[in-house]
Amino acid sequence: MQNIKVDNLNIAEKREVISLLNDLNPFISSRFSPDETEALKKAMRNGMQTSVRAHNSKGLPTAILTLRTALCFAQAIEPDHDILLAIGIYPILKSGMTDILAVRREWGEGVAGLLTGMEAVDKFSNKNNAVNQDNFRGLMLALADDIRVIIIMIVRNLVLMRSINHHPDEQWVRDVSFEANFLYAQLAHRLGLYKIKGELEDLSLKYTNREIYTQIAHKLNETKRSREAYIKSFIDPVKNKLEAAGLKFDIKGRTKSISSIWNKMKKQKVDLQGIYDLFAIRVIIDTPREKEKSDCWRAYPIVADMYTAN
Question: Which pTM value belongs to this model?
Answer without folding.
Answer: 0.80
